[in-house]
């Protein structure tokens, strides 16, 4: 999952980004509405965590743009307002969910994961590829019912591959989904993470390298 956090309180924004990193969720930050719109034009996000009251382009307008131009992106609106009319107004703008500040970080993570899986409502909650099983919500991976301990990046890479359902995922797509906008486009991080992931998964290798294209699961279901 890749998330854009639009929040002008720098400490809060950085805390959210760091916390999401521990949950294997790649997050970019935008401190103004204008930065958010610029990021939306160049990056493919699954969810936007949007503070309603931000400098520059107002959060309401950012939400309208997302609803109009990026209908597949889900929006969680953040606000300090507690009135019902404010929440209703947010939903009328196209927000999918609403969190009132202050909020528990664990609740944000649960809501993010719930929103991210909405477009894939037909996908099974537990992903299966041959003898490999990945539970994205318990954050557990098993092969032949044996638990495998993965790093956050290894888990995120494997989840992206398994969600592709046998489709080819390029190194660029992995970089976009698993790392963040500050990642060097020429980095070898995806290749190195893929190599270490394969060692943990063991033989026979469940991941196939497609020359010149990327990677895919050999036995996706």
In words, what does this structure look like?
This protein has helices at residues 10-22, 33-42, 59-69, 84-93, 105-116, 152-163, 171-178, 189-201; strands spanning 2-6, 26-30, 47-51, 74-79, 97-100, 127-129, 132-135, 140-143, 146-148, 207-210, 214-217. The chain is of the alpha/beta class. The strands form three sheets. The protein has a five-stranded parallel sheet, sandwiched between helices. Strand 3, helix 3 (59-69) and strand 4 (74-79) form a beta-alpha-beta unit. Helix 6 packs across helix 8 (189-201).
Question: Short description, anyone?
Answer:
The chain is an alpha/beta fold and 221 residues long. The protein has a 5-stranded parallel beta sheet with strand order 2-1-3-4-5, sandwiched between helices. A 4-stranded antiparallel beta sheet has the order 6-7-8-9, covered by helices on one side.
Fold blueprint:
Layout: E1 2-6, H1 10-22, E2 26-30, H2 33-42, E3 47-51, H3 59-69, E4 74-79, H4 84-93, E5 97-100, H5 105-116, E6 127-129, E7 132-135, E8 140-143, E9 146-148, H6 152-163, H7 171-178, H8 189-201, E10 207-210, E11 214-217
Parallel strand pairs: 1-2, 1-3, 3-4, 4-5
Antiparallel strand pairs: 6-7, 7-8, 8-9, 10-11
Helix pairs in contact: 2-3, 6-8
Provide the succession of SSEs.
EHEHEHEHEHEEEEHHHEE
What overall geometry do the principal axes of the alpha carbons give? Answer: elongated
The largest beta-sheet arranges its strands as 2-1-3-4-5
| Helicity range | 40-55%
Largest sheet: 5 strands, parallel
Report the average pLDDT across residues: 87
Strand content: 15-25%
Number of strands: 11
């Amino acid at each position: 999952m890749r998330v854009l956090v639009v929040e002008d309180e720098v400490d809060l924004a950085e805390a959210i980004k760091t916390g999401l990193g521990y949950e294997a969720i790649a997050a970019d930050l935008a401190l103004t509405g204008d930065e958010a719109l610029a990021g939306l034009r160049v990056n493919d996000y699954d969810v936007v965590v949007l503070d309603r009251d931000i400098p520059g382009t107002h959060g309401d307008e950012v939400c309208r743009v997302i609803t109009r131009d990026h209908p597949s992106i889900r929006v969680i609106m953040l606000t300090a307002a507690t009135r019902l009319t404010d929440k209703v107004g947010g939903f009328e703008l196209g927000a999918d969910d609403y969190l009132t500040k202050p909020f528990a970080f664990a609740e944000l993570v649960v809501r993010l994961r719930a929103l991210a899986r909405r477009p894939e409502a037909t996908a099974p909650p537990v992903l299966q590829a041959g003898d490999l099983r990945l539970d994205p919500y318990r954050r557990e991976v098993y092969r032949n019912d044996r638990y495998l301990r993965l790093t956050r990046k290894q888990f995120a890479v494997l989840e992206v591959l398994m969600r592709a359902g046998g489709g080819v995922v390029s190194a660029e797509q992995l970089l976009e989904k698993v790392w963040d906008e500050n990642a060097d486009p020429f980095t070898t991080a995806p290749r190195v993470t893929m190599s270490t992931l394969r060692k943990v998964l063991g033989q026979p290798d469940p991941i196939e390298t497609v020359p010149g294209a990327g990677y895919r699961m050999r036995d996706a279901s």
